[in-house]
């Protein structure tokens, strides 16, 4: 039997990720990335031995050690990590949010396994270009950055993977909509603060539109303020139940 037929789908995803991201500047990167996207699009919760959770089950099985007596809003199942990529599963409780954050110099792929996610994607803009508007006042906050708010879409298991690159859709916020949700996540290369790949969090500096008004259209230029990690966001850990990678 051919090796690919013997390997589980997630093992084939990991193998293709290793091929794709070992030479991200190589001539075959686009083709390899497309093949990885096709494989990732096939992955379902049952391939990783995950059972979709209801709201009460998610609260009871949040995993990890409770922080401050509370269940983590988000949990992570580590699958594998190499120098060129990391792969794991994020599980979000109903109503949980992974705040707006960046992935410096990194590629990423996100595939929903169950539930519905609302993902807002943004790009940072070069500081030298003329700004469309001055930044709104911030009360003693961190540095402000110009960004292009590109998209805000819902993703389900039927959706193709959400992709990010070092320059496109590199900042995103992820919200669980109408119940718990889980997604398979690939980052290449992994976060590594010692190599300048640390995660930074941001807050969108714009007010809410008046009641009954249409939200501003996308894409549009916005201002972001760099912030510390929110006190109500942290990530617990859970064992990964799927095929060994």
From TrEMBL:
Gene Ontology cellular component terms for the protein in this record: mitochondrion
Keywords annotated in UniProt: Dioxygenase, Iron, Metal-binding, Oxidoreductase
Any Pfam family hit: PCO_ADO
Domain of life: Eukaryota
InterPro entries: PCO/ADO, RmlC-like_jellyroll, RmlC_Cupin_sf
GO function terms (MF aspect): metal ion binding; oxidoreductase activity, acting on single donors with incorporation of molecular oxygen, incorporation of two atoms of oxygen
Database matches in PANTHER family: 2-AMINOETHANETHIOL DIOXYGENASE
Protein name: AEDO dioxygenase
Native organism taxonomy: Eukaryota, Metazoa, Chordata, Craniata, Vertebrata
Gene transcribed to yield this protein: Ado
């Amino acid at each position: 039997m051919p090796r690919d037929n013997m390997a589980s789908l997630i093992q084939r995803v990991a193998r293709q990720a290793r091929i794709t991201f070992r030479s991200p500047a190589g001539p075959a990167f686009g083709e390899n990335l497309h093949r990885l996207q096709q494989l990732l699009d096939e992955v379902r919760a049952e391939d990783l031995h995950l059972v979709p959770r209801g709201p009460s089950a998610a609260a009871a099985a949040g995993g990890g050690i409770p922080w401050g007596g509370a269940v983590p809003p988000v949990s992570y199942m580590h699958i594998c990590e190499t120098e060129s990529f990391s792969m794991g599963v994020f599980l979000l409780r109903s109503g949980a949010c992974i705040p707006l954050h960046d992935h410096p110099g990194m590629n990423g792929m996100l595939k929903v396994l169950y539930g519905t996610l609302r993902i807002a994607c943004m790009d940072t803009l070069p500081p030298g270009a003329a700004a469309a508007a001055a930044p709104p006042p911030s009360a003693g906050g961190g540095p402000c950055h110009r960004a292009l708010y590109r998209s805000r879409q819902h993703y389900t298991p039927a959706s193709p993977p959400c992709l990010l690159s070092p320059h496109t859709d590199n900042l995103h916020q992820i919200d669980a909509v109408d119940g718990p949700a889980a997604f398979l996540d690939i980052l290449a290369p992994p976060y590594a603060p010692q190599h300048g790949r640390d995660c930074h969090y941001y807050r969108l500096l714009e007010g809410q539109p008046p009641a009954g008004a249409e939200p501003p259209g996308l894409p549009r230029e916005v201002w972001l303020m760099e912030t510390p990690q929110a006190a109500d966001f942290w990530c617990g850990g859970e064992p990964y139940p799927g095929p060994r990678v």
